[in-house]
Amino acid sequence: MPALPHIASGKVREIYEVDSEHLLFVATDRISAYDVILNQLIPDKGKVLAGLSLHFFDLLDTPNHLVSTDLSGVDGLSEDELDDMKGRAMVVRRAQVIPVECVVRGYLYGSSWREYRDGGGPTTEHLPPGLKLADRLPEPIFTPATKATTGHDENITESETRNLLGDDLYEELRKRSVDIYLRASEHAAKKGVILADTKFEFGFAGDELLLIDEVLTPDSSRYWPADEWVPGRDVPSFDKQYVREWLDTTDWDHSPPPPDLPDDIVEGTRTRYVEAYDRITGASFADYLARAG
Ligand code: Q0Z
């Protein structure tokens, strides 16, 4: 752990303080499956996720928290820490986090499918009847959620969200989130990848509304290989299906502790992440690593 003040720990990310206006945002190689952090690291997974966020910050050109990937100006990191963080860390603008997860869905899956199937819920307010699991929606929907302090995000209705944010901020977040989803999903579609849904976070730095956190990574998004999408059926996720399928061969009940991953499953999972980077960005992860040093 670096000697910087630690601000927050996520399942697979860490945040440190650089100064009053800047944070160091670090993607680790930790992986979770079935909501449990596994015992093994996936080499380079954090760099794949950081590389994808950087790809989309660049592509989207929407106001965001990225300041720099150059860590040489960050005091208090040892040579070893600088080396470990290459390619996985960014200096970002510290923002006042808006306490709503801005989820956009283009397909009916996950918690939204379960609400729909079970008679409706916050995410299904604006959906027509007759949809099947994994159907493409008539248009993308904005389905905000709140960060529950324990466990899962909780989907909230449009009126609950408007009451939390006010109508003006609600409209601005909805418009920006759906716009980013549409542009990213068109980009992914050209590579044979479906962006089924994704989750954004925003924050204010002064009066500027910034896209913060990780963006359009496999951890914040549901990416499907387009040729494996069949409406009415479960769709395998790009990144985690491989490790989930191995976990399913064990008798693990999804409560901690999880079983140890064999080396070949770790390696196969790494390969899936690298393939996701190459396919979604149209660039080469080997080049990204070489550039990151
Ligand atoms: C994001 C999170 C993580 C745990 C705080 N630019 C920003 N300014 C202020 N706060 C944040 C950001 Cl990104 C911020 N999170 C979510 C991320 C570990 C929690 F890496 N928390």
Short structural description:
The chain is of the alpha+beta class and 293 residues long. The chain has 8 helices and 15 strands. The strands form 4 sheets. Strands 8, 9, 10, 13, 14 and 15 form a 6-stranded antiparallel β-sheet that branches.
Topology:
Layout: E1 6-9, E2 13-19, E3 22-27, E4 32-33, E5 36-37, H1 45-60, E6 66-68, H2 79-85, E7 89-93, E8 96-97, E9 102-107, H3 110-117, E10 136-142, E11 145-146, E12 154-155, H4 158-165, H5 167-190, E13 193-205, E14 208-212, E15 221-225, H6 241-248, H7 263-281, H8 285-292
Helix pairs in contact: 1-7, 4-5
Ligand Q0Z binds at residues 8-10, 13-15, 23, 25, 65, 92-95, 97, 203, 212-213.
Account of the 3D structure:
- The two termini are 21 Å apart.
- The chain has 293 residues and is α+β, with helices and mostly antiparallel strands.
- The protein has helices at 45-60, 79-85, 110-117, 158-165, 167-190, 241-248, 263-281, 285-292; strands spanning 6-9, 13-19, 22-27, 32-33, 36-37, 66-68, 89-93, 96-97, 102-107, 136-142, 145-146, 154-155, 193-205, 208-212, 221-225.
- Helix 1 (45-60) packs parallel to helix 7 and helix 4 (158-165) packs across helix 5 (167-190).
- Strands 8, 9, 10, 13, 14 and 15 form a six-stranded antiparallel sheet that branches.
- The structure holds ligand Q0Z.
- Residues 8-10, 13-15, 23, 25, 65, 92-95, 97, 203, 212-213 line the site of ligand Q0Z.
